[in-house]
Amino acid sequence: MYVTTALLRRTASNSSNTSTTGKRLLSSLSKKPVSNSASSSISGNFNQTPQRSLSFYSALRSAQRWSHGVDWKSPASLGAQIRIASSTASLFQRNIATMASENAFNRILTSLPKPSGGEFGKFYCLPALNDPRIDKLPYSIRILLESAIRNCDGFQVKKEDVEKIIDWENSSPKQVEIPFKPARVLLQDFTGVPAVVDLACMRDAMNKLGSDSNKINPLVPVDLVIDHSVQVDVAGSENAVKANMELEFQRNKERFAFLKWGSNAFHNMLVVPPGSGIVHQVNLEYLGRVVFNTGGMLYPDSVVGTDSHTTMIDGLGVAGWGVGGIEAEAAMLGQVFILCRTGFSPICNYQRYKSAGVDTIVLAGAEYGSGSSRDWAAKGPMLLGVKAVIAKSFERIHRSNLVGMGIVPLCFKSGEDADTIGLTGHERFTIDLPSNINEIRPGQDVTVQTDTGKSFTCTVRFDTEVELAYFNHGGILPYVIRQLTNQ
Prior knowledge:
This protein is of the alpha/beta class.
């Protein structure tokens, strides 16, 4: 793969460089999305994307078990805490209520009565659709169907998406993409710290924009299990556990203090402290809800998680998927997770191009992003000024992560790549991407020209209108903040 510079027409504001990443996010937010009234080709001049800083609390006063005062030795106490955390999600409940009042499938909203009178709540009854295809769907696909129906808003989830799932027998071989909103998110501390940092940075941006920073909270329940900091330095002695935990707290003092702050600062977030069990143990035994009741809306438990053991929850009949940190963060903020059937060049090159005020394009091969550290494989290039990636194909999660960071994913046409076209990696590129966001369509073709006279066609891998909205705002985080400031 090559790293090559993009031909840019940058404004002075785009070329300025600030040291505080909170200011960079605010700067990105202060720029309006691409105007719908302008229409012209652009030359690598894409929306600016947010960057982040790590601002930790520097002291951890004690090694007590912590997260809202829960006694983690008591399953009853943990169960009560889960219920409390769920009940604090007032914004999420209001969103659920709004969806229920506007949903195109309200005709199948059914009450679940209590034997003694009244009702437990309401749920979307799939048999009420009277579609014989539903009886043939695997149970896991019915979970996707219920979620799509419950969240059908005409934008993130459309009636056409519901039909794709119902017609699973025919649509599954076609590699169609299905939008999905999980009921909750599971994080471990390795990916959880950047997610909480982003939430904190978004609160800072909301304050500077004169809006209510308390609007920044996870919109679905988030469980963060601290288990990726474990090391064994002492073994074979009675005090081994205590000695290892003391060393663990010493080494991770800032991280643990920051996560402790986050557990109290954000609603709808539950932090399982160090020494309380690893993800697959806690996930299976404690954190699975099986059925949610949010504001009187009943729906099945489902989860996306950043730990490789997330899918063990399937053993309890709960649908679970493993995802990257950016996708998990998007789900935390109420965005859809796209389901489908179906290495970087030296940092010095990035920095050299960025210091010269020139944005960067990455030329890559097949399955770009496979085997990489997915979160930073997207965040790192964004921070270093990469504006587009042209590849033969993308690893699915990595492609969506790039979009979430405001980076444009482009695919060579079948049978073509950098070698067959004769690209050396030293060219400058002009990408004929409309500046009017309404003129960009998922999967459309665009022309790419080089300063050496070569011209070729690529497919823009914005696969949904939601991804186009993310790009128009410079990424997921600016998009969410703008939505909240407009409420």
